DNA sequence: TATATTTCGGATAAATAAGTCTGTTATGTT
DNA sequence: AACATAACAGACTTATTTATCCGAAATATA
């Protein structure tokens, strides 16, 4: 459903939020180890997220990544679109040139329902909110 | 959502059904051209489908692929599982080692809802039924 | 039996995704 | 100013997916 890169991106941002909510900036090494992802690959992804202004970053000693109110409106959907493109949200799931009600593929009408649910999943809660749930112990980013 | 191979597989089987319902066996060339897929790759996929008994095949002149009542219970879900594995239906969408209510990732409860809808999409109508809809002109496998 | 047709099976090639490495730039500390 | 730290940028490697190629096996027809 999501690419590896997108999974790491989502977990990274949520982890960064959990730390930013306690005013801690975090480095690649810490992020990667806490979400169970390869360090170098995570670094590449964080750079993209930073360039897209989905997170903030500061170079140098005591630098690292962070999230603040200027990033609070970024949704999971934004992240997926940035990294995986929008094939999950638009275009024909069976690969027909156009997805439409007029010329629907055999799965079209069911795909529409699935996409509605996917949209809810990726837009109903903010990344910050998801981080709060992690802090509360309701959900988690890593298992031993 | 689906791999290229899975898309071609789905379209191939539905196309084969549309022809089998009129007692016509079809060859790779005809299938590939009617679903807009590369011929050699389609051939490979058809071999897998045949080996898994999701379709029937006959070698030699007047041979080709077909579907009959012995294939009528194959679902879209079976096809996806064969070709893409079951990552769409089980396992954590964010890549955690285990997907469970006890140790849920931040997306778990929403993922469950999406998966329910995906399951409906892939099991509610038989491939044969989908073929009938194509025959009736309600849906289509290819656009010009 | 010879031939043409069509699937089967495995090897190979090309494209994309996943992941690594290495040097550069910015910045805080001494 | 010199140094250490940590993000940035781009080239590189590896793995997987997508796609092609070619010969072997099966089978209908002449
Ligand atoms: S036409 Fe295929 S999903 Fe809409
Ligand atoms: S734990 Fe992640 S989807 Fe269930």
**Ions, cofactors, ligands: which are bound?**
FE2/S2 (inorganic) cluster
- N-to-C SSE string of chain A, H for helix and E for strand: HHHEEHHH
What is the radius of gyration of chain A?
17 Å
Percent of residues of chain A in beta strands? Answer: under 5%
N-C termini distance of chain A: 24 Å
How many strand units of chain A? 2
Estimate nothing, just give the exact number of structural domains of chain A.
1
Task: Examine the coordinates and then state which fold CATH places here, giving the name of the CATH topology of chain A.
Answer: Arc Repressor Mutant, subunit A
Structural class of chain A: mainly alpha
CATH architecture of chain A: Orthogonal Bundle
Could you give the order of strands across the largest sheet of chain A? 1-2
User: Biggest interface, and residues per chain?
Assistant: A-B, 41 and 41 residues
Task: Give structural attributes.
binds FE2/S2 (inorganic) cluster; DNA-binding; two-stranded antiparallel sheet; 144 residues; mainly alpha; Arc Repressor Mutant, subunit A; homodimer; 4% strand
Task: Report on this structure.
The structure is a homodimer of 144-residue chains. By secondary structure, the first copy, chain A, is mainly α. Chain A has one domain (4-135): Arc Repressor Mutant, subunit A. Helices cover 50% and strands 4% of the residues of chain A. Chain A is built from six helices and two strands. Chain A has helices spanning 4-20, 28-35, 39-51, 76-84, 108-123, 127-135, and strands spanning 56-58, 64-66. In chain A, strand 1 (56-58) and strand 2 (64-66) form a beta hairpin. In chain A, helix 1 (4-20) crosses helix 2 (28-35) and helix 1 packs antiparallel against helix 4. Chain A is elongated and about 55 Å long. The mean pLDDT of chain A is 97. The structure holds FE2/S2 (inorganic) cluster (2 copies). One FE2/S2 (inorganic) cluster binds at residues 92-94, 96, 99, 104-105, 107-108, 111 of chain B. Residues 92-94, 96, 99, 104-105, 107-108, 111 of chain A line the site of one FE2/S2 (inorganic) cluster (FES). Chain A binds a DNA duplex (30 and 30 nucleotides) through helix 3.
């Amino acid at each position: 459903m999501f690419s590896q890169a997108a999974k790491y991106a989502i977990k990274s941002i949520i982890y960064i939020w959990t730390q930013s909510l306690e005013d801690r900036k975090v480095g690649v090494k810490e992020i990667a180890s806490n979400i169970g992802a390869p360090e170098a690959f995570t670094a590449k992804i964080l750079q993209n997220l930073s360039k897209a202004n989905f997170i903030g970053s500061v170079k140098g000693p005591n630098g690292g990544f962070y999230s603040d109110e200027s990033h609070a409106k970024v949704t999971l959907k934004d992240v997926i679109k940035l990294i995986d493109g929008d094939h999950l949200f638009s275009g024909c799931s069976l690969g027909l040139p156009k997805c439409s009600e007029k010329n629907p593929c055999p799965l079209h009408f069911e795909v529409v329902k699935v996409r509605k649910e996917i949209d809810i999943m990726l837009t109903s809660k903010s990344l910050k909110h998801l981080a709060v749930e992690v802090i509360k112990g309701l959900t988690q980013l890593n298992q031993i």
